[in-house]
Design goal:
CATH class of the largest domain: Alpha Beta
Distance between the termini: 79 Å
Structural class: alpha+beta
Helix content: 25-40%
Largest sheet: 6 strands, antiparallel
Oligomer: single chain
Length: 434
Amino acid sequence: MNTATRFLETLPTDVRLIRMEALVHAGIALNRAANLDEILLEILNHISTQLECDRATAFLLDERTGQLHARQMAGSEFIEIVMDATRGVVGQVVTTGESMIIDDAHASPYFDDSVDRRTGYHTHTILCVPLLNADGKILGAVQAINRHQGFFSNEELVYLEAFGVLAALAVEREQLMQDAVRSHLLSTELQLARGIQSRLLPNAGNIPLPAPFVAWGISQACYDVGGDMYDAVMLADGECAFWVADVSGKGIGAALLMTTLQTELRALVHTEPDLTKLAAELNRRVQIAAPIGTYATLFVGRLSATNEQLRYVNGGHQPPLWVAGSDTHAPASLQTGGFPVGLLPGASYEEGRVGFTRGTRLAVFSDGMTDAQNCAGETYEEAGIIASLNHLPPRDDRAPNVEHIGAQLLSDLDRFRIGAPPQDDTTLFVIGLD
């Protein structure tokens, strides 16, 4: 724009004022016009008038297709022009980012005469400048053709570049508006997805189960939607099946696989009593449904009140922690299982069995708890959970309430990570027998 101003200073006073006024009016159009087409048309009309040429056209680059298309024209009825971004004079300008001035179009190796042949028009002289945003990204080009008398000058090329700056501002503003609309639509879609996902999980808090089973759970997504899941369901044989799983990654991709896993698990626990076969089948289904390298850690169990026994498979998940009264036991005994589901084709699994006496509580959690960081960059780790469990206030001779355990663990975790940005989805599930 500064170069254009210096060029204008070399013109006669009356011409200089007219051309400066044209630039001012084109700038005003940026705020006055209702849409991009109106802005571009006003700019192109000023170009054709001030440069005394037949036609002026604004070409925009479509990033999705890699093609150029004529968005607006002045000096003729609108002609649909779509071409490869490397074709013709416009393609050369867009490819190189360099302006061009051509005195004899048909003698130029860059000229594409397909539009002339289609319309019967004859192009002689051309000015073409790139549309660049503030970062130097090429958005398209503006082209003026066929000066009424003589040839285009280098000074007029500079003047056209000034109009190109205004046109680029208009295009970028339109793109920002479109991005804002897309962002709003995405936000709406994410709200819908969050609502759908929340219906796939139990309501946060106590999970309704028949006595003597008691359970409590919560899942907090790092972003709008998450890849963690948990549930507890009663089976026909009177046992309670439960699980906590953590899909690799975060956000929408993890949420999509979480939806699939939750649906599959709810069906499989009712049809497959053998947890090793259940995990192997889930592994097979994840392999089919998910992209390569996507997997989920899983802790799935079947709790029998009659036998006071827990059967489980740990598929690469954080080992849960036992809570009996106020004593916290080492988690090593709950590591039996195998690899995360979806990680290895044909993976096999082992089943673990352990006693689960009345009054016992088991806390199962995702690594969003152990990997949580505070503002100082310190990590919560398993030690933080154990310390929280060890500080549970005594409740006489009664077993600790699952809701009390869950609330205490979550409160201590939140106090640790307050003020720090979330790092991962966080899920906590507590189950017990009264």
